[in-house]
Amino acid sequence: MTFKRMRTAALALVCMMCAVSTASCGSKVVGSADYDNTSDSASDGEEPTEETATEEPSTEPVPEDKRVHVTAAGDNLIHYSVYKNAELLAGEGENFNFKPLYEHVKYIVEDADVAILNQETIISESNELRGGNGGALLFNSPPEVADAVIDLGFDVFTMANNHLLDFGADALEESIRFWNKKAEENDLTVLGAYLNDEDANNIRIREVNGVKIAFLAYAEHLNGFEIPYDSPLRVVMNSEEDVIERQIKEAKEKADAVIVSAHWGVEDTHEVSPDRKELAEKMVDWGADVILGCHTHTAETMEWIERDDNTRGFVYYSMGNFICCQTDNFNLVGEMPDFDIVLDGETGEVTLENVGCIPTIIHYESPDFANLRVYPYSKYSPELADKHGVPYAVPQGTYTNFGWDVINDIINNNIPEEFRKLDK
Question: What's the pTM?
Answer without folding.
Answer: 0.86
